[in-house]
Model the fold of this input.
Amino acid sequence: MRAMTDFVSESVESFLKPIETNWQPSDFLPDSRDQESFFNQVKDIQGAAQGLSYDVLTVLVGDTITEEALPTYETWLSRIEGIHEADRNNPWNVWVRAWTAEENRHGDLLNKYLFLSGRVNMREFEKSTQFLIADGFNIETGHDPYRNFIYTSFQELATNISHRRVATLAKQQGDLLLSKINGVIAADEMRHAKAYMSFIKKIFEYDANEVLIAFEDMMRKKIVMPAHFLRETGMQVGGLWGHFTDAAQRLGVYTAIDYANILLDLVKEWNLENLCDLNESGEKSRDYLVKLPERLLRISERMTNPVNEYEFKWIGVRD
Ligand SMILES: [Fe+2]
Ligand SMILES: [Fe+2]
Done:
């Protein structure tokens, strides 16, 4: 981690955007100071949101709650070995704060959109959000930077996919504003994915065997999504998660095939196939990982689409 401080310092510049010119949630929302146009624009937003299907809304609310649980992610990143011990001006800590500051706009924007849309029971959504932050998560990375940056590489790619697909569905269903909102968020996720993938790529230069072992370990445990503890009122921890992923799988917003393809992208990005000069454990992990995407793809092709259409308290009765 110490060897990488210059690299991380440059990464803040190259992968994150200057705050002065970066987009802000209000760029996509009506200005509440201008009373007349504000209420007209809210009417337009509510009109367009009427066309969104139940499943799209469900996935959108779940994605928003995932973004709103940012305190969990910042706390956990700042506890990684090599970051935790460093002083506040260390590039690693600067990175964690700057990344968090960019991510914070996602939950803000989506939350405000949901509020204006007129389609969501905001109190239920807010309760689920408070539950999720209170429950935290268990991603089984420990405080190990290798496992954590493999996780974040995977995760940023996954959120890029799901926001991008919601953008496409929103457009198809006539909500152009929501489509734009999800589009700009997806673009941020891609920049972040590139950053975390570059961290791991750099670590490969120093410690290929150990990062391969960490990668294999993460894939054997399976990458759980950050909102896997999702629940609504009256439920045990994680009780809502399966219903949420059912909707995402059914819509094709995030599927088992995507999971396998993300892994394939990472295997290619880190050039696993051509890694040599490894020790025995490193070679074993490399061979396992290179074959894994194909195996997962075969399994996912045999999976059937979930049919159970749960009624979420966030949205209410299905019609
Ligand atoms: Fe995000
Ligand atoms: Fe992200």
Observations:
- The two ends are 53 Å apart (CA to CA).
- The first helix runs from residue 5 to 15.
- Residues 67, 103, 106, 159, 189 surround fe (ii) ion (ligand 1) (CB under 6 Å).
- The chain has a mean pLDDT of 96.
